[in-house]
Amino acid sequence: MKIKIFSAVILLLVVTGKTWGQQLDKEKLSGIKSLAFAYCWGVPDITIFNSTKIDVKKYGFDQQPFYDFLEKKVVEKMNAANIKLIPFSESQPVYSSMIKMVTALSEIQGKPAPTQEQINQLNNQMEQLQKLQQMVNMKMGGRGSGLVTGNSNAISSSNTSVALAPAIDKNGQEKPGAVIADYYSDEALKVYARMAKDMNVDAFMIIHVSVYFSSETEDGKTLGGFSNMFHKEPPHAIVKLDFRIYDAEEKPIVLFKNKDAIRGYSKEALASFKSSFGHFEWNNGEAEKIEYDAMEQAVNNIAAKIDKGSF
């Protein structure tokens, strides 16, 4: 089935350069009166040793519950820090609305808002995409849940599913299947900020999630090198969070980006892990347990990094 997407969101982007580093404006952070949790996303890939992808059908498990868990933990920490998040019942209908995003994109580009005919066309296309999503879910045993808008293979938490991926450019186009958090374009941030203004909030928050299983130590050092893949230390679950807060003028307040992303490291290793010459066995239930642990540790580490009261 070939589906055309509204002209403002046809997908293609050439990304030039990457930015690294982190930023924290504690004064601006402490002055936030209200915050919208705009987007918690990633790709449903699990890797071993940060390079070898697991066969999802044979070894993988659904990542959607982990995104929801992460979202809940972040909200808990924000509330503990007296940073008011607006309810998901207010933010979710805004950030998950293709119509609202396309309208915001048109506005920041100085273009007229979509006509009713265009809106009707887009709604019809989105209905087709939802049907396609259901087909993907059936084929993948539920592991295909998430966004199917455009060519993105990203998934997101239940309450923070934006209609446009974060790589949209000035023409409303997007890099197909963007998986690296540095692909937040200026245009995407402007759209997210414009929608934050519509909700009368001071700032918005976005998180990109990466999950892998490795024999790295908690400080990122590798135990045993490449040979570790075959017969040495069992892997721990490691979660990396590209965590950002921007104000309603898309100016950064908190940036923990890519290379300097916040890490969560499971307390326990994957004891059932066995490997020899690239073939591996493990226990999914055990793997899920230590991934949850790594998720919680990552959120705790955000709290420690920001170091603002209990957050």
Automatic annotation (TrEMBL):
It comes from the Bacteria. The lineage of its organism: Bacteria, Pseudomonadati, Bacteroidota, Chitinophagia, Chitinophagales. This is Uncharacterized protein. It comes from Hydrobacter penzbergensis.
